[in-house]
């Protein structure tokens, strides 16, 4: 059921504490932790504690929690990267590079980024 923890979801296991992660910030509704395969000097994932497969389904079902994820992504970016700029990325679907199907934001910083990405 949407919103409920999924036994086979890596990020649900991190939320529950069954899988270790380097947590940098936690709130009532979110957990932020370092990516195990960083793509930039700063690469933190911010996830909702509730399970939805992607950012679009999270925003449709629980817009307040989606806003929490985005707010915390901004706060983590400032905490980890100061005011030197950052990128927040939501991959939605396998075709966009999503590999863990639990909504999450990638907070990237610590280097310059080109536009367009890809």
Automatic annotation (TrEMBL):
Originating organism: Streptomyces cinnamoneus
Domain HIT: 10-118
Alphabetical list of PANTHER family matching this protein: HISTIDINE TRIAD HIT PROTEIN (PTHR23089)
CDD domains, sorted: PKCI_related
InterPro entries (alphabetical): Histidine_triad_HIT (IPR001310), HIT-like (IPR011146), HIT-like_sf (IPR036265)
Histidine triad motif, short sequence motif: residues: 102-106
Catalytic residues of the enzyme: 104
Matches recorded under SUPFAM superfamilies: HIT-like
GO molecular-function term, one example from the UniProt record: catalytic activity
Protein name as it appears in the record: Histidine triad nucleotide-binding protein
């Amino acid at each position: 059921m949407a919103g409920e923890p999924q036994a086979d979801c890596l990020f649900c296991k991190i939320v529950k504490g069954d899988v270790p992660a380097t947590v940098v910030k936690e709130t009532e509704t979110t957990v932020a932790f370092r990516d195990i395969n960083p793509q930039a000097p700063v690469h933190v994932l911010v996830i909702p504690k509730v399970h939805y497969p992607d950012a679009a389904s999270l925003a449709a079902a629980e817009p307040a929690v989606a806003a929490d994820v985005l707010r915390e992504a901004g706060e983590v970016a400032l905490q980890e990267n100061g005011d030197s700029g950052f990128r927040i990325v939501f991959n939605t679907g396998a075709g966009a590079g999503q590999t863990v199907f639990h909504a999450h934001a990638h907070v990237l910083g610590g280097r310059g980024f080109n536009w367009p990405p890809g």
